[in-house]
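User:
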Amino acid sequence: MSVRTLPIKKVINSIDANTVTVSGTEVTIRVPGAPPVSFDSGDVVECSRTCAADCTPGVWSVTPIVPVEPCNCPFEFTLILKPIPCPGQVGLVGEGNFNGGFGQYSVNLPSGVTPTVAQIVVSIVEQVNSDPYRFVTAAAVGGTGTETSFTLTERNCDIEYSSGFMRRTCGVRVLVNSGTIVNSTPHVSSVYSANDAFRDFPVGHGQFGVRSDLTACGAYCKYYFRIVPTRATAPAHMLNHGYVTREMELEFVVNSSDTNFVDMFNDELSAVIDCIEDWA
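Assistant: Predicted structure:
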């Protein structure tokens, strides 16, 4: 029988020669203000290291096409933007904009004359950039009066909340009713950002704002260990009924910007634990 408890989570902001000590196969990790944690490196059955990395905003190039004989008169060009929510988000929030929402921008001329590509580009760029709840920023391509296309750059790929109370996105679906769309730079999500650290260590009772111990936002590495002790002694009454072990899960969120991080933390662990690699 195996008994698994909730993971033990600790933040390590400063590192010195006593943070990680190794004696044979015995590993001890010390966290200021908390009892040390010790385990045998041979008992680690699973582990990983996840380090912070910034996101890459998605970029799209849109070239409007004006039909020679438009089906609708007057012709109207329409751009629709649908944000892709990030894992763990219930919905993308803007004022009155829940459950994902979308942005729609249209161009037609009151005179009924079919707009030119340049007129479409100028109008769309102005509409998008003046929208306080926009998911992207827009830029025209081409000289004044001869614009040929526009680019859209994801606005909130690594910011949980920004002006307009818009939550971060993990990509945007770009749709037009007449034109071509090229995703020149695909969205790449951030890895263990400040938002992820805040979720791992939420504000507790009696605290305000954010956790005071998360001082290196966006510069943490998370080390995960699952440990199954093999040297545990079975109670006498269990000797003829199987072997009892107590699994333990440990998560250490470590400030990777500390000058001692590589030599005194990561490489101390990688020397005795195979599933933690040396720092490149």
